[in-house]
Design goal:
Blueprint (H helix, E strand, L loop, with lengths): L13 H11 L10 H16 L2 E13 L15 H4 L7 H13 L4 E6 L8 H9 L5 H15 L3 E5 L5 H7 L5 E3 L24 H14 L3 E7 L5 H18 L2 E8 L16 H15 L5 E2 L19 E5 L16 H10 L3 E4 L20 H7 L11 H4 L3
Parallel strand pairs: 1-2, 1-8, 1-9, 2-3, 3-4, 4-5, 5-6, 6-7
Helix pairs in contact: 1-2, 2-10, 4-6, 8-9, 9-10
Length: 400
Amino acid sequence: MTATRPRPNSSTSTGEAATALAVSDGLLPADTAPLEELCAAAAALRDQGKGRIVTFSPKVFIPLTRLCRDFCGYCTFRQDPAAAGHRLYMTPEEVLEVARRGEKLGCTEALFTLGERPELRYPEARDWLNRRGYRTTLEYVAAMCRLVAEETGLLPHANPGTMSRREMESLRPWNVSMGLMLESVSERLHQPGGPHQLAPSKRPRVRLRTLEIAGELGVPFTTGILIGIGETRPERIQALQAIADLHRRFGHIQEVIIQNFRAKSGTAMAQSPHAGTNDVRWTVAMARLILGAEANLQVPPNLSALDYPTYLYAGINDWGGISPLTIDYVNPEAPWPAIAELNKRSEEQGFSLRPRLPVYPEFLGASSRLVREHLRDKLATLTDSQGYVKGGIARYAGLE
């Protein structure tokens, strides 16, 4: 991913390119640039770098624990020990059972998602871990990633929250990639009444430092922003520029997600409006113009079930993880689209849908410093000559 900016060419009109350049150079306020021009310039830039291939990762979702030290104003994923009951953490047997069922369905990614350091808040979490020989949740995550990597054909991708260098190093041997949503760089969101007031791990400097450590260690990394939680458009641009700067330094940001806020009952933001389609389109287009032609840019289709194909025309090239087995535990009200439907709707817009691994094809080359040597044989057995999942879309979409 480079910070390439669109220049006039056969697929970009002079007006579109001029608008894109003016916005990215700061000469034209992004809020006043015509939305359709922004989207057209972003889509043309995507075509230059990615063509008309749109990807997804066939995955299983493993919510290792829903305990969390943070309290975010929009989250229904977190639980306290009383709500979790005796299931404070998934057991190794439960983890393997989900992974093996997913493997039979053709999944290649095991997405580990969990709450942030619950042992710092809850003695019940500390006791559960200590009885099993672990000091921290992240130690347990590393052990479960190793278990899945060694016992199944799936590739772990861990999203365990903020990490120190030592913690990330312990996860790295068993994860082909990792992730952490930046969400926002707005300090205002931590003020009293803000969605991150009681969420210390959401401080921008802490999350940016985790992204920086990933770059220093050479870990292919997924990140992104959450829009509609009270941030301004200039703050979104600042967050995207921070991501672009990190990638410019280290070359490790493999994917950027533009995730739209959805209000959920039972949360402090239950009455807040959703991020609208045009607001998401604007943000996607700006992300493409800031991040460049080679960036992998995603909008989760389950969060925009009715109109997700429109984001293809704002510059995305990926639909993210889609599971034929497990729900989206972070957004349980939003089911994944069926892969056959995703394929059909992508084709209708002139795009070819291809399954990918949790690490993108461009990171799989023999010379890549971002893939651990002992994982290369496993990756090779799963991919075709272009780095996509063997068998293509037919094995998932019922097209055989």
